[in-house]
Amino acid sequence: MNKNPERPSKQQIKDKCLVFDIPYLFGIERKIDFIKLLIENIYEESLKTENLFLRSRTGRELLIIDKKSIKEKIKSLKKYIAYLKSDNERGITPDMILSAKKVNLEKIIKINPKGMAECINPDHNDKNPSMDTRNNYVYCYSCGYSGDVIEITMKINSMDFQTAVRYLTNG
């Protein structure tokens, strides 16, 4: 459980996004926009007066912040923005993985009209197509190799998981 309700964790944001049926990245972006607006308002108000009065979300409590604390509050909010952005810039999201898994296998490997392809396993020299391709998933009847479109991309292009997902989603 997060100690500060004004700063929900990524998991709490993700849960809320599921409830309202909106993409996770959209929820993160809206939260970041809200915090940037809050920072802007705090800064503008701090220019007008010595002490800053902020109301909580409930509107009941008044919080008095002096000029020194204002800088600390803005710095703290900027760190929270960096925390929210951390997975979105370096990592991948569940939405990206789902999108990557929907990429048609025919864009990655050559599939014959019967739905068979030559095995991509380097330990198996396949002269005749022995790899079955169904539902964006492959299985080689000769050597037992299996995988989905992401694993195939990783194997063919010597990529790690994150790079393969970005490649498939053109991210």
Automatic annotation (TrEMBL):
Pfam families: Zn_ribbon_DnaG
Protein name: Zinc finger CHC2-type domain-containing protein
Any GO BP: DNA replication
Residues covered by the Zinc finger CHC2-type domain: 122-169
Gene Ontology MF: a single term: DNA-directed RNA polymerase activity
